[in-house]
Amino acid sequence: MPEVLLPFPRAWLEFPNPDDEGEVIRADLTWLTSSYTCIFGSGCRGIYATSPSVGCCTLGAHFAGKEDEARTAGFVAQLTPENWQFHPGRKVKKGDWIELDDEGERKTRTHEVDGEQGCVFANRPGFAGGAGCALHVLAGSLGVSHVETKPDVCWQLPLRRAFRTVERADETSYLEVTITEYERAGWGAGGHDFDWYCTANTEAHIAPSPVYLTHRAELIAMIGAGAYEELVQHCDEHVRSGSRLAIHPASLAAD
Fold first, then answer.
1. Which of 98, 149, 198, 199 has the fewest Cβ atoms within 10 Å of its own Cβ atom?
2. DSSP codes joined into one string, the chain
3. Sites in the chain below the pLDDT cut of 70
4. CA–CA dist 205, 34 (Å, integer)
């Protein structure tokens, strides 16, 4: 079936972060209770028809900052030719995996292989070490979460976190942390030019468990363990309520 058109009604929940009195979590229950799952290697067509083998890893990943880049660099140093298809075969240099975009922002390098553009860490189908992100493969071999090994923007997908300072009428304020679907618009204007995209596509809404459970590690990293535990309670209650707004249209259409 075609991708579900945006926008559509969503159910939102706000609750104070139990571990931070100055923070309020704003959660998209419609997305978090959906049956979405990544289908890379199992039906994913890639965001561009010209690069179907690399999924959404076509453009490379921008770093969230110096700390994000430094953490990623520590794991890049642990990659080998056995788990990274495009390993340079010597001590890795920054130029092997980092480049600047047109605005001078730092990001992972992209290259073209067999006519398909992709991130330099994107192992291609047939590679003995495993297709997909080399840093994701590394996480599996180290027995750690990919949240630790990959750039922030990579492990956060398909979740999107946004921050906003909210001013109350009494002249106090709090930090609003929104957790929602990383829809096409999250990629900027270029997202509308994607040939295929997964989050609102029925083909990717096939998981037996909802996003708030399957993406536990990512959500804890985004909002903290205490807030996550409370989020699970609210999501459980919302699902039990049977509200139509608890059902993502793509999940409903996929049933």
1. 98
2. -PPPPSP----EEEEEETTEEEEEEEEEHHHHTS-----TTTT---SSTT-GGGTT-SS--B-SSHHHHHHHHHHHTT--TTT-TT--SSS--GGGTEEE-TTS-EEE-EEEETTEEEETTEEPTT-TT-SEEHHHHHHHHHTS-HHHHS-HHHHHTTEEEEEEEEE-TTS-EEEEEEEEE--GGGG-GGGGG-S--STT-GGG---SS-HHHHTHHHHHHHH-HHHHHHHHHHHHHHHHHT-GGGS-HHHHHH-
3. 1
4. 7
pLDDT score recorded for residue 82: 97
Q: In this predicted model, what pLDDT tens digit does every residue of 75-123 receive, in sequence order?
A: 999 999 999 999 999 999 999 999 999 999 999 999 999 999 999 999 9
Strands 173-181 and 116-119, sheet pairing: unpaired
Q: Which residues pair with 113 in a beta bridge?
A: 116
Q: Which residues contact 8 (CB under 8 A, 6 or more apart)?
A: 249
183 Cβ neighbours under 8 A, 6+ residues apart? 6, 160, 191, 197, 199, 200
Q: For tokens 């979405």, name the residue.
A: 36
Question: Chain-wide mean pLDDT for the chain?
Answer: 95
Cα distances from 89 to residues 82, 111, 123, 141, 245, in angstroms, run 10, 17, 15, 20, 52
pTM given for the model? 0.93
